[in-house]
């Protein structure tokens, strides 16, 4: 029987062996809850989470490790960012700008927020999938509180002009966030449930491996 060829890496990819090696001990050996720091297993788990948070912060360019919030994945992260931001700032305005080709979890959340009073503008894209900076500037209103545009599209791979969008948002004193999932317990009192230690450690190792590879590629 011929060996099958996997061509769906856009949907999911096999785990890097270096990442798997780093994760394995946290499934059976270091299995403590990172919130239970009154015993050795919990202490080791917390240290592992902190190391992972440091590696993730480095690749994202965060100034503080405390800026990293670990969630179950991109869908929860997008929900947390969009719903949390709107509910906190809706007293200042209810207008949100996004793009028409966001991931469904973003578009669905924006639809949900409409029921809470949000007014959403979805920017169209050109034939290549890029939004127009001019369209963005024309869409900004006095009551615009958030601009949410994805970094890299999960289907066609285009990278939106995030730097320019961020500069515009900053100049107008508007919050800007991006879904960068395709570009690269109790957690900080912002989510419920027990923290997934193996996944967090694996995420940190993935960030470390990616950062080192990027540095090597830049040198070469």
UniProtKB/TrEMBL annotation:
<dbReference type="InterPro" id="IPR015424">
    <property type="entry name" value="PyrdxlP-dep_Trfase"/>
</dbReference>
<dbReference type="GO" id="GO:0031071">
    <property type="term" value="F:cysteine desulfurase activity"/>
</dbReference>
<comment type="similarity">
    <text>Belongs to the class-V pyridoxal-phosphate-dependent aminotransferase family. NifS/IscS subfamily.</text>
</comment>
<dbReference type="InterPro" id="IPR000192">
    <property type="entry name" value="Aminotrans_V_dom"/>
</dbReference>
<dbReference type="Pfam" id="PF00266">
    <property type="entry name" value="Aminotran_5"/>
</dbReference>
<keyword id="KW-0663">Pyridoxal phosphate</keyword>
<dbReference type="InterPro" id="IPR015421">
    <property type="entry name" value="PyrdxlP-dep_Trfase_major"/>
</dbReference>
<feature type="domain" description="Aminotransferase class V">
    <location>
        <begin position="5"/>
        <end position="187"/>
    </location>
</feature>
<protein>
    <submittedName>
        <fullName>Cysteine desulfurase IscS</fullName>
    </submittedName>
</protein>
<dbReference type="InterPro" id="IPR015422">
    <property type="entry name" value="PyrdxlP-dep_Trfase_small"/>
</dbReference>
């Amino acid at each position: 029987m011929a060996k099958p060829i996997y061509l769906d890496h856009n949907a999911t990819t096999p785990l890097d062996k270096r990442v798997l090696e780093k994760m394995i001990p946290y499934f059976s050996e270091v299995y403590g809850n990172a919130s239970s720091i009154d015993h050795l297993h919990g202490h080791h788990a917390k240290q592992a989470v902190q190391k992972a948070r440091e590696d993730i912060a480095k690749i994202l360019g965060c100034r503080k490790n405390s800026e990293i919030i670990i969630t179950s994945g991109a869908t929860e992260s997008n929900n947390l960012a969009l719903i949390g931001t709107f509910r906190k700032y809706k007293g200042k305005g209810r207008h949100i700008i996004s793009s028409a080709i966001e991931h469904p979890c973003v578009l669905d959340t924006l639809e949900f927020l409409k029921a809470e009073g949000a007014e959403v503008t979805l920017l169209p894209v050109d034939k290549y999938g890029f939004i127009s900076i001019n369209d963005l500037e024309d869409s900004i209103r006095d009551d615009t509180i958030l601009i949410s545009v994805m970094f890299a599209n999960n289907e066609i791979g285009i990278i939106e002009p995030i730097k320019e969008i961020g500069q515009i948002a900053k100049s107008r004193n508007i919050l800007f966030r991006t879904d960068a999932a395709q570009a690269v317990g109790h957690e900080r009192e912002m989510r419920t449930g027990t923290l997934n230690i193996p996944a967090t450690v694996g995420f940190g190792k993935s960030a470390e491996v990616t950062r080192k590879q990027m540095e090597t590629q830049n040198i070469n």
